[in-house]
Amino acid sequence: MKQPFLFQKLIVSGQAIAFVLSTSTKFQDLPISFQRIGKQVRVEELSFFTRQEARSLITEPVQDAHLSYSPEAIAAITDCSASHPFLIQLICHEIFEYALKENVTRADEDAIDIVLPHVLEKSLPPFEQSTNGLSQRELQTLAACALVSDQQGTITLKSLGNTLRKYTHLVGEERDIERNLNELQRRNILQEEKQHVYSFTIPLLGNWILKTYSFEIPPRSPLMSNLRLVIGGGAVALVAAVIAFLVWGGLPLQPTTTPTPTQQMAEAHTPTPLPIMTPSPTPAPTEVPPTEVPPTEAPATEVPPTEVPATEVPPTEVPPTEVPPTEVPPTEVPATEVPSTPAPVIMALPTGLQFLDLGVVGTGDLKLIYALAKDAGIYRRDANGSWSLFSNGLDDANGIRTLEAQSASTLYVGYDNGARRWTAAGGWSDKYPLPRVRDFAVVPNTGVVFAGTDRGVFRSTDDGVTWEAMNKRLNGDIINEAVYSLAVGQDPAGDWILYAAGAYGGHIFKATIFPDQESTIPVDRPRWEDIPCNNCGTFQRFFTVAVDPANAETVYVGNDRSRVSLSSNGGGSWNTAVVPVGGATEVFITKIVVPEGNMVAYAATGSNEAAYASNGVLIRQDNGWSVAIPPGFFQGRDYVQGIALDPDDPQVIYVAGSNGLFRFDYSTSEWIPSP
Q1: What's the burial of 325, exposed, middle or buried (CB within 10 Å: 0-12/13-18/19+)?
Q2: Residue 223 confidence class, pLDDT cut points 50, 70, 90
Q3: At CA 224, angle to CA 223 and CA 225, rounded to 5?
């Protein structure tokens, strides 16, 4: 049913109305619970706005706000959003914020170019959802479509096949490419303008594909690219329901993020056969270098040169004629030097990876680094300096969201729907079903592990094999909210204290843990004490909590409003500091690590869900916070999501984020890429 501004009419005339919004999803494809509701209430199906409706939505809200739009700006907003009302309003909101800040009274195309990076970051969940479930071949086809569209304007089978062959070494038959294109059309990502000529249904979606799943070459043009517009692609199903729930392709609309096109253009890349998306699995980690990482095959190709002297040592066949010359040149020396130099067999990290988390265990020559790459699984750096795709044997490795490296022999990983553990003795366990896992806390050498999830805290007393909810508070209430972060440590009396940071409402909880008794303590026993933080500033969420490993009375919490709060008495009182924001408008504190003795503290800012709220790495010393920016990092565009202490030196940290993996020495301010 097509009616102009139907949303507004329903809101004005309806009584007790709530909405379920779903883009490019037919009503019959919605979850069964919504379908049942739909039998009792009214269902409206809408197309995207007409150009006139889009124009009204752009201009009418600012008639009294002393802001106008040039005709070119109106056309550009309409074109890049495909007249989708949500995207129109998001773009206009960002332009309005920009106009207020810069005292602009007329928005033109330049203003749109300035705000579009923010628009892409804040509209990523719907875009990201549209690619969920695509196979590796389909993702590669999609990345090639974005590249061809950016360079040529339209997508043809010929140009698509050439691009796939050039950058992926995949020489698929035409019918295979057509099969992938059909799936992309079914999802309303692409549309066929005429036979075998395609374009993106929403140009902004094409931009996001280009920067998120593209091959490692810079985009040719800014966000206002040559992606062609065809209005009225997928339909929008509007369902009046008993709950308010905003869904685009099945996920809630909330800010998320990946590196922006501006960032990609600033970095010099050369075409390589490896797409950023995912490395394909190989039989064993040691086999990964040649198959997993075509870009880093340079070291692999250097192996033959070092082995050539050994194979060409057949100058031993020359002895009959040139015995002195061939024996004198110590051709054996290179052979003896090669084993002592591990470089030829060391595998470097693939380029272009974005990292979500990492862990460092062991000391000295036994140090191991685990790094979780977005949509690519876990890489491990062994003691000899060589990287391998550690999660190679897992079919669902791309779905890992967080990791906790307990030791060289034990690793825990969390998913949106469960948790696994890996042990050196038994390998990967089965996935145990849990709500989305956001963090782990481990009581060392006890088998007691805790998981912060979207439904509170879960406890395992058998080293992560089985789990059960542990959410009873001392006041009788139940923790039934997302717990983003956990931290455990011992207080001066020797008691183990577990802290949990609630994502919504700014809740902090703590409980005393008895590692040798946990297996006998009922999970429904009241354990959690509420910790108020009245002077922590205006906030919506606490993203992280951390303790001094030597004294759990020293507690840090970080929120989503550029504030870090510190308590030295277990949460009895707090001192709050506003951290530097740099090029961001605000900073999300998403990870804090503290060495023993609280001599220094390190904080990660931003995340793949909020890169716009990032200012690199924050460092606290002498009661003040300073900023350390990784190489190639764009403030407010990139994010740092993982930080881990170097077990050998508290002034050295490992940093994981959207622009790669680094080692940072605070004493020298030195950054070392891909350690």
Answers
A1: exposed
A2: very low
A3: 90
